[in-house]
Amino acid sequence: MGPVHHPVRHPLRRRRRPVASRHAEPAELIALAKAVGEHEGTQLEAIVAGCLDQFADAEIDLLVEMSAAAGRPLNWNVLTIDATVPERVPRQLLASERARKSGGRIVALTMPILTPMNMSLGTFCALNLIPGWGEVLGLPLPERIARLRDPDVRAEMLRRADSREAGVFRRLANFGRYVVGDTYSRENEGLTGRVVKDIAAERGQDPFQCLVEICANDDLRTVLWPMPTDNDPASWALRAETWQHEDVMLGGSDAGAHLDRMCGAPYTTRFLGDCLRGRKLVPLEQAVRMLSDDPARLFGLRERGRIADGYHADLVLFDPERIDAGPATLVHDLPGDSPRLDSRATGIVSVRVNGVETVRDDEVTGAIPGRVLRSGRDTRTVGTR
């Protein structure tokens, strides 16, 4: 229902034909939401500009009215939690409080792990969304490199990135905290896995200058991994508190828009490992419910989400000493040899779908007994009235 940012190679972007919802006025979106409510087994999902930082008043009004008009829950993503911005969580959850008073329900999706996300100066990414940066990063390659090597241009880019208008993207401009990923030139041999601030100190450069020179050696193909800024005890404590809210659910969705940029899929096994051997922010039984029964109830999945008589035999058996997820790696197995990030689960003893084993000891068996879930047939309607 809301705007979604896609890589510049997307055919709709090339033809300058964005999807209709990018131009729809609030009245049209509310009318569409009302139409959704006329069909069984339906739900709403919205992505608006304020999702990543803090909602504007008009955005809260729109989400509340859409849910109320449809009589359906509306989920949005993603709720980012950072103890250095304590006002963000109550502001974002204000939409949920207002929705309940208006006959709707708004559910915030939030990730229980720090999601690996790579950056690049060569292709469209979140850096392009920093105010003023898109004008430089959208230039043809030779001109882009020349502009990035200009100290005055870099200074202006950093100034814009540190301004209030940059919002949640401000943290992406701390280039000393980037880790160098894949490199493609002889000049950059041995840099993979190193932190930019350490390389910059050796070279007597500021971090942004150092990063630009590394990327220029690779014709801007270098893969960059920003280190998270919200990996502190206070932020994790705030997450644990926020997860208890009745309108907060673990998870996230981008409809596959960032397959080569972000790796959020391992949040389930990594979260379980964290609950057993790491921070232990919630008991294991609660963690399992948050990953299975909670989403099944929200989306109305029939006979799924819990172990009970008459329910589908969809079961996961895991080793509590090993359950986790491996590091994110870039693989090329999509059509056209396109890349995606992959992270393999570990500690999985068995996965059964409809009672048939599909995974044994971390390896797929080749069995495919599942089926696509269809609205109405496999779901019940979850309303708000």
From TrEMBL:
InterPro entries: Amidohydro_3 (IPR013108), Metal-dep_hydrolase_composite (IPR011059), Metal_Hydrolase (IPR032466)
Domain of life from the UniProt record: Bacteria
Domain Amidohydrolase residues, every copy: 20-355
One Pfam family named in its UniProt record: Amidohydro_3
Ranges of compositional bias, category Basic residues: 1-20
Annotated region (Disordered), positions in chain: 1-21
Family matches, as SUPFAM superfamilies: Composite domain of metallo-dependent hydrolases (SSF51338), Metallo-dependent hydrolases (SSF51556)
Name by which UniProt lists this protein: Amidohydrolase family protein
